[in-house]
Amino acid sequence: MLEEYLEQEIKTVGIYGVNSDITTNNDIDLSSGKGNIGIYGEGSGKTLTSTGNITVGESLLDPEDETNSFYSIGIVGSNGIKNKL
User: Fold this and answer.
1) What is the mean pLDDT of each run of 10 residues along the chain (85 residues)?
2) Taking the model in full, what pTM does it have?
């Protein structure tokens, strides 16, 4: 059942950046979606800064297989990015 839903559901990232600083003071509302990310960035030494409100919807969790789960996340970075809230 979850697999069928995931095939139809579109995941959304509000703001996405690679190897660049991201600064926003806008509100991001993804509350009607599931498994979405408000802001995602990556890049060593880069910074994510958000002063607006980020609202996400519910996560999609598969209790039988964690690899099929999609979490709703407000702001996340990888590969050396710094978050400033």
Assistant:
1) 48 84 91 88 88 91 86 87 72
2) 0.76
